[in-house]
Design a protein that fits this description.
By secondary structure, the protein is α+β, with helices and mostly antiparallel strands. It has 17 helices and 32 strands.
Length: about 700
């Protein structure tokens, strides 16, 4: 966390026990190793901030109605037209839902999904006692699940306790608003013991109150912001996960821009409410996950950490078979996606750490299979949108940066941009026939991309249908992929007949599937799109033949290392609304050389003419024992110039690899790479690194395009 803060220009330093004692003279430090100090960290009085904001808003003409219950909404032509209150209607074109613990219930009044739930949130407040001074830094004693700060010459001890308690809205009074819940000392007792250990003087302090108030948490611990896909004009800013006041300035500004301009102006994809599908917004799921989110708010985020609640919501047709073969699954947009496979179908619980993980050898085996023989991936969690209609080619040419009017049977990899030239999505599109395309996007982009495209239909005759659940996807990747697949089909799979970036229907293993010659791992292979009900039979036949060709199951951890070695980007990690194809070094995938206009073209034309201020690179640490996880500062000639965006261990090159961005400061990126020495900072320690403009593995792409032999 401290290294990441440095990458964003925030002053932090590692301090020893003596410095902690100076800053917090009443704290026990004999059992501490040290701490991280951020001098610019601070706090405000929330009620004063709210009062100031309301005063400023009123001065600007805003009218404020307090004690006015909302009991519904008026909707005209699928757009908000009024808020219905207990004292009348308020006509409007947009609403912003900031309803705290009531937000999910209010959203349901409008037929909108808002997956959050409230939990009890505790803070002990004492009367004044000796040893407190005004302006003490907030003491984050996360091992004890607490934070401590001075409060009116006394102390406030806030808790994110492991056994959090959900709040049942049906048990609250209908007029519950800015109220407190009952004190529950038995529940707070474990945190109190931790507080007495850390601050012994608390034993004699007088208690003013045990504050118990509601706080809302979402399924993934990030906010709910932006316009709902279900209803135009219905915006949200809720589920703040105890970070509402701290985030309020930036969140309020971004939401205002979103409402007025239709674009927040910055990348808010991580909090965009459209990252969730409706199937995840059940009361049971959000209740269980909110409890776990509060309980883990201060837990150490080890690589491989997964939620335990609200699982098994979305299962691939292959799920049971994969688990029987030892799949250890992670939650990806509600899908149970295999992360890696334990040999022999073992069921050992992951042992999490920051160094070499216990799954290291298992993932190495899967990685090696993809590079040297063949690996089988379940990619069914891809989101799939079917676009049809007489104007579909015209529509896609206007909204995609790549050249879309290709022959049926061709595949196009293309960005979908905003007016700033930034990636709103990064998709693969198959032209099925003159009036139909199949668009493949990320698991978390199912709702977002469908909504984005529907909003861009301006009179064109186009329909968009979500067919995600209709098809399973089985990836067969590696130099033996052709030999394996050839045993199951009579179709000609030769490079001359089935070229890279092409697709067609084939008869395979007694069924019919759409085979797409494309790969996300940098090796030749096929993705087989098969009706969900036929997927298991096809998978079993593939697996039955795989031993002969060295084939094994592989998971998302192996795929991450494979794609990062190759330098492939992942939307939401390496590219997003603030990054353009020129930032990402992918100007070649656009149709700028044509005279076809498309969303974002003007911004790209400007960048092509004047250049960019930062650039994506690949980088690897020279020490094979250093493990990267993403979000590490990149140092160039001793100065922090950027940070990594995603990272994994590159088993082919034998060290950790990452993708990241660096500032160019007016120089050409090749000049920077050729003249600078690079380091990567991991947990405040710097390690020599090697930077490259292209991926470290097969930069020419020969293995990807040619049907090579091992």
């Amino acid at each position: 966390q401290a290294s990441l803060a440095r990458a964003f220009g925030i002053e932090v330093e590692e301090v020893d026990v003596a410095e902690i004692s100076r800053l917090w003279p009443i704290a026990r430090t004999d059992d501490l190793l040290g701490g991280i100090y951020s001098p610019s960290d601070g706090r405000v009085t929330a009620s004063d901030v709210c009062a100031a904001l309301i005063k400023g808003a009123k001065a600007g003409g805003v009218r404020v109605f307090e004690d006015t219950p909302v009991n519904g909404f008026s909707i005209t032509n699928n757009r908000i037209s009024a808020v219905n209150t207990a004292v009348g209607k308020i006509q409007c074109e947009s609403v912003a839902l900031c309803g705290g613990l009531w937000s999910r219930a209010i959203a349901r009044m409008a037929g909108v999904s808002a997956p959050l739930h409230a939990c009890e949130h505790y803070a002990l407040i004492t009367k004044p006692f000796e040893g407190i001074y005004t302006g003490m830094p907030v003491l984050g004693a996360h091992d004890g699940h607490m934070y401590i700060r001075d409060e009116g010459q006394g102390l406030l001890v806030g808790a994110f306790e492991p056994n959090a308690q959900p709040i049942d809205l049906s048990e609250l009074p209908k007029n519950f608003s800015f109220d407190l819940l009952a004190e529950k000392w038995d529940h707070f007792e474990p945190v109190m013991h931790s507080a007495l250990h850390r601050i012994p003087a608390l034993e004699k302090a007088e208690v003013r109150m045990l504050l118990n108030g509601p706080e809302s948490f979402t399924l993934d611990g990030a906010f709910l912001m932006g316009e709902a896909a279900e209803l135009k004009g219905f915006f949200m800013c809720c589920g703040m996960n105890s970070m509402g006041v701290a985030s309020s300035g930036g969140a309020g500004k971004a939401l205002a821009d979103w409402i007025v301009d239709g674009d927040p102006g910055i990348d808010l994809s991580a909090v965009d409410v459209r990252r969730f599908t409706r199937v995840r917004d059940s009361l049971e799921a959000v209740r269980e996950r909110a409890v776990e989110n509060l309980s883990k708010h201060y837990a150490i985020g080890y690589p491989g950490t997964e939620f335990e609640s609200a699982r098994d919501l979305r299962l691939s047709p292959l799920h049971e078979r994969l688990v029987s073969f030892g799949a250890v699954c992670g939650d990806r947009a509600g899908w149970e996606r295999p992360s890696w496979f334990q040999p022999g179908g073992a069921k050992a619980k992951p042992q999490l750490c920051f160094g070499r993980p216990h799954w290291f050898k298992s993932v190495a085996r899967e990685h090696q299979a993809a590079r040297q023989s063949v690996a089988i991936f379940d990619q069914s969690s891809f989101s799939k949108l079917l676009l049809q209609g007489r104007d579909v080619a015209i529509f896609l040419e206007k909204n995609c940066a790549g050249l879309m009017d290709v022959e049926p049977g061709r595949i196009v990899y293309t960005p979908i941009l905003n007016e700033r030239g930034g990636y709103e999505s990064d998709v693969v599109v198959m032209r099925l026939r003159e009036d139909a395309y199949l668009l493949i996007t990320g698991s978390a982009q199912q709702v977002r991309d469908a909504d984005l495209l529907r909003r861009r239909i301006c009179g064109e005759f186009v329909t968009i249908t979500d067919v995600t659940s209709a098809y399973a996807v089985i990836g067969i990747m590696g130099p033996n992929a052709k030999a394996l697949l050839s045993r199951l089909t009579q179709d000609d799979l030769s490079a001359s007949s089935f070229c890279y970036l092409s697709h067609r229907e084939i008869e395979v293993a007694g069924t019919v599937a759409r085979a797409a010659r494309i790969s996300y791992v940098g090796e030749s292979g096929w993705e087989l799109y098969v009706p969900s009900e036929a997927a298991r039979g096809l998978y079993d036949r593939i697996l039955e033949m795989s031993d002969e060709y060295g084939g094994i199951n592989a998971g998302s951890f192996a795929m991450a290392g494979l794609r990062i070695e190759k330098g492939y980007c992942s939307w939401g990690h390496d590219i997003g609304p603030d990054d353009t194809p020129f930032h990402a070094g992918q100007g070649f995938v656009t149709k700028l050389e044509s005279n076809i206009d498309f969303v974002g073209r003007e911004a790209l034309d400007t960048q092509q003419k004047f250049g960019v201020d930062r650039r994506k690179i690949s980088i690897s640490v020279d020490d094979p024992d250093v493990f990267l996880g993403g979000n590490e500062p990149i140092i160039c000639n001793g100065e922090i110039v950027g940070h990594t965006t995603s990272a994994a261990y590159g088993y082919t090159i034998g060290r950790s690899v990452a993708i990241g961005y660096i500032k160019l400061n007016g120089r050409k990126v090749r000049d920077v790479l050729n003249s600078a020495s690079f380091e990567v900072e991991v947990a405040l320690e710097r390690h020599p690194a090697t930077a490259s403009l292209r991926g470290f593995y097969d930069p020419s792409g020969h293995r990807l395009r040619a049907l090579v032999t091992p």
